[in-house]
Amino acid sequence: MLDTPQENRFDRFTRIAAAALGVPTAQVALVDAERRQSRLRAFCSHAIAQGDLLVVPDTHLDERFAADPLVAGAPFVRFYAGQPVFSADGQPLGTLCILDQRPRQLSDADQRMLRDLAQMVQDELNRGAREAELAAAHARAIESEERLGVIADNVPALIAYVDTGLRYRFANTRYQEWFGVNSAAMLGKTVPDAMGEAYFAPRRAALERCLEGHASALEFEEERRGRRRVISTTYLPHVRDGVVQGIHVLSTDATSAREYERQLHALAHADHLTGLPNRRSYEERLVQAIARARRSAVPMALAYLDLDHFKQVNDSLGHAGGDAVLREFGKRLSATVRSSDTVARLASDEFVVVLEQVGSARECARIADKLLEALRADFTIDGKAHQIKASIGIAWSAHPEQAALAHTAGEALVQSKRAGRDTASVLVAGA
């Protein structure tokens, strides 16, 4: 509510509007005789003047609102949609509006839903003033409840209400779809009785905190009915006259969002050709490996590897053949070193191996021999055997520092190339 006292009777409409339409903010903004809305005046006045739903996909592109203080400053409104509500005699009472801090479009279905919700708000506003139409108002209220139930059951989220005894007083039908639990059978049962102790136990602390008047949010991975979901849940205390009456529960399926985040992380940290860690990931892992080496006082090493004359290999085999060589090269490196070591591709034919817990420079030499042996075996490309060779430079340090390791490994690699390639050199960093 804007510019009006908080009224619990509108809370359910704004909560459903926000959840159903996927926006962070939904509000009922009322007007009075002396002044229009002091905060959303520009938006709501246009909606009321228009007499129908006003949709502003991007306020920055609309000259009517681009300079509005709520666009230029907090709360930085970028999207607005408002449906006016009127009294029984046609006087404007205000709007039901939804806001977002990013541009967006409102589909035809979403527009219908906002109009339906606004109609319910309008019915609610006019109900007390229609003594002569008490029966009709009662029918409309029932219809509004039915609409609300339909909306709640079709929102892609779990919506529920539990009382102070943690007994379900409302649950939408998504519980049946997600958990195989009949929502009607849940009513009157406690959370552990309705959903099981395994479901209740990790949520108990959050529910108890909510009963103390504190909103809480948590996220769990659940597997029910053969499907694994990441479920993000918000618990909101229902407070009346300073006393908690119950808890509103809203849970959404965050599986796709988390998988998208995982894919983005993988794309940002993996080499697209070999699947190995890329330069960014290598640098992060090197820092972590150095920190571990310092904490445990155990030496480590860093190896640089280049394919010898890779340009000639690429020219003779073609780019597809060259890519196959790089993929096989990466596989052989990974198969030769320990799983605790990091093999990464920096660029083109440049590879690196972070070797942890390497006791001496002599041990580095043994590792280099194993790598050269693995790489000297024929590479089969398009059914033909090819000899691919590489140069290796390894820096070893008992007290590793990132810059010194990298510099020394580079020097060792140059030394190997000057020695005729197809060989390895080991240098002590900081010596």
Structure description:
With 431 residues, the protein is an alpha+beta fold. It has three domains: 1-154, 2-Layer Sandwich (Beta-Lactamase), CATH 3.30.450.40; 156-268, 2-Layer Sandwich (Beta-Lactamase); 270-428, Alpha-Beta Plaits. Helix content is 43%, strand content 26%. It contains 15 helices and 16 strands. The strands form four sheets. A five-stranded antiparallel sheet has the order 6-5-9-8-7, with helices on both faces. Helix 1 (11-21) packs antiparallel against helix 4 (108-127), helix 4 packs antiparallel against helix 5 (134-154) and helix 13 (310-336) crosses helix 14 (361-376). The protein starts with 10 loop residues before the first helix and ends with a strand.
How is this structure best summarized?
This protein has 431 residues and is of the alpha+beta class. 43% of the residues lie in helices and 26% in strands.
What gap, in angstroms, lies between the N and C termini?
Answer: 70 Å
- Write down the CATH topology of the largest domain: Alpha-Beta Plaits
- Total number of strands: 16
Oligomerization state of this entry?
Answer: single chain
Strand order of the largest sheet: 6-5-9-8-7
